[in-house]
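Milestone M4 deliverable, item 7.
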Amino acid sequence: MRIFVRPSSPSAAGMPTLALRSPRTASIDALRADRAPLSVQAASVVGFALLTGLLAQFEIQLYLWEVPITLQTVAVYGAGLVLGSRNGLLAMALYLALGLFLPLYAGGAAGAEYLVGASGGYLVGMALAAAVIGALSRRMNTLAGSALSVLGGSAVLFACGVTWLHFAADHASWWQSIESGWLRFVVWDLTKVAFVSAVYSGLRRLTA
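Output delivered:
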């Protein structure tokens, strides 16, 4: 009886790989650690909450668009990467709470009425997005890993936003909600994902 052996595939040892985690530590990583002084953690949470409110004031409201274009998700994505899952979530939760009383929502809006409006799902999704980004970036901290982590958070944010928008705006179909609540923002959001990931990666190199 003859036995035929299939030749093994060529070795992939020489092929380039995409690194998602770097063993190098950086000073900025201390902001993510539970062992960081409580005062530092509190200041970081408050700082990112206020930064989110500041960037929310850069608003572009286009005709017939239910959801405005803002810069606040730059702070959301940054909070997840810099502060980690728990404190990133706390920073966004604080932002939402402050916005009930102070003009920190997009375009200087405030109050519960705005929070339950068409943009409410995105606002709630910000806290979840920061938590997801923080959890994912704990294991993926290179430029590529950070970008993937932020993309994961972005997916959560838009899933919350589109679902909420569908019912708040009483859209006739889910496609209408997806088109007006996500597809219109894809290029703008990918630009912010790349920007935040590059800045965070640069900060880790500078503080290594």
